[in-house]
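Mercuric resistance operon regulatory protein
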Amino acid sequence: MEKNLENLTIGVFAKAAGVNVETIRFYQRKGLLPEPDKPYGSIRRYGEADVTRVRFVKSAQRLGFSLDEIAELLRLDDGTHCEEASSLAEHKLQDVREKMTDLARMETVLSELVFACHARQGNVSCPLIASLQGEKEPRGADAV
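Predicted structure tokens:
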């Protein structure tokens, strides 16, 4: 890890964690990141553990976890709750698979509509517009 990640101001901390200051404040409001003590007449300081925590949140977001799910994963981060964490990941994996199925269905419908648009001849209404207006449902559109 980078050297000297202790005693950081919020700006330096945000940069080290790869986010902006508003993201830090947002995570604090959401309870994902504790707000450090503010010594009298001083400014709050952050350390390596805070940087690691923000990176954890960002990594989990990239995998599709919601902030509520990330809060739950953080709660489980003592090394003894692997089964609970695995269960959360299994649910997320199922969600991802369902979304992929939906996206594949949408791709098929859109592909058919684009083909129909390119294949139309004469003064026929646009198949895409007609489909969206409900005049003619493309195959599989009711599932989208």
